[in-house]
Specification:
329 residues; mainly alpha; hpI Integrase, Chain A; three-stranded antiparallel sheet
Length: 329
């Protein structure tokens, strides 16, 4: 076994799991990165992964791997950068164990993330929200579950993994109604609920009849919904809603669009961006700036404040008859 294999194994077992306590999602993302990287390196070096050395994963190969992700696998710059972040994390750990490879490791760590254009966020208008909430067939159990999910997602702006991780005991519908959420970095937060969402969830919990530890939004077999299942049902109901709301036909509706919708509703209500950051569980206030860029209402209000007072513009009058002649040519 090469020096790379024990270092990579220690990176996952010691650094990620024991020292940092990384979430299962983080570990899975890092695992997939190195599966792809080792497979790519195997093709170029002609060695099985367990025989690869650290020097086989030099900056040239890593750069070629990143290009492969974009051009051959069709990954977006965001995905490319996420893979590079995982590689950088492992190489920073390897630098402590293998100082003899300091020069190679420093060149890998110097590989930059790729810049990309940030599109203006998409969100739903009030008319589109009403059409989407009316789309599930509430004569069926699954339709009532989907309506509860959509109502909760649009009002709270929870991430899709936060939605699927909710248990029945995380919902508190008494005075100060809220949901208790464990977000990124295992940070807990309480997100308040409106009276409409409380009514929907109270009816759903009564029908759900689940134990406190069971998933709030479950499949017909009682299992927690997957991320893909939530994305599919949101897309399905958006397609149904588009028959009654034409603007939805040209809009891609996903669970993250529902999160953006909650943020924009708060912004339109005059909520400060720092409060929105706390509401959504953002790491920093800067993350909420994308909503300010997307909101034309705020920009139009700012433009109205800068409009000069009404005044009649003066007309140029030539001071000389010869200049007047030339002006009228």
């Amino acid at each position: 076994m090469s020096a790379l294999a024990p270092s990579l194994q220690a990176f996952f077992s010691e650094r990620l799991i024991n020292e940092k306590g990384a979430s299962p999602h983080t570990i899975a993302a890092y695992r997939d990165t190195f599966r792809l990287l080792l497979g790519f390196a195997q093709q170029h070096a002609g060695k099985p992964p367990c025989k690869l050395e650290i020097e086989d994963l030099d900056a040239t190969l890593i750069a070629a791997f990143l290009d492969h992700l974009e051009h051959d696998r069709g990954n977006s710059p965001r995905t490319r950068n996420a893979r590079l972040a995982a590689i950088h994390s492992m190489f920073r750990y390897a630098a402590l164990r293998h100082p003899e490879h300091a020069a190679l490791i420093s060149r890998v760590l110097a590989l930059p993330a790729k810049r990309f254009e940030r599109a203006i966020v998409s969100y739903l208008t009030p008319e589109e929200i009403d059409a989407l909430l009316a789309a599930p067939d509430r004569t069926r159990w699954i339709g009532r579950r989907d309506h509860a999910l959509l109502s909760l997602a649009i009002q709270t702006g929870l991430r899709v993994t936060e939605l699927t991780s909710l248990r029945c005991q995380d919902v508190h519908l008494d005075t100060g109604a809220h949901v208790q959420v464990t977000g990124k970095g295992r940070k807990q937060r309480a997100t308040p609920l409106t009276s409409q969402t409380v009514a929907v969830l109270r009816g759903w919990l009564k029908e759900r009849e689940g134990d406190a530890e069971q998933p709030l939004l479950a499949t017909s077999r009682g299992r927690a919904l997957s991320r893909d299942a939530v994305a599919l049902l949101v897309s399905k109901h958006a397609k149904t809603a588009s028959h009654h709301c034409a603007t939805l036909r040209n809009k891609t509706t996903s669970p993250h669009v529902l999160r953006h919708t909650a943020a924009m509703n708060l912004l339109h209500a005059g909520v400060d961006s720092t409060v929105i950051a706390l509401w959504l569980g953002h790491e920093s206030v800067e993350a909420t700036q994308i909503y300010l860029h997307a909101d034309m209402t705020i920009k139009e209000q700012a433009l109205a404040r800068t409009t000069p007072p009404n005044s009649t513009p003066g007309r140029y009058r030539p001071p000389d008859t010869l200049l007047a002649f030339l002006e009228h040519l």
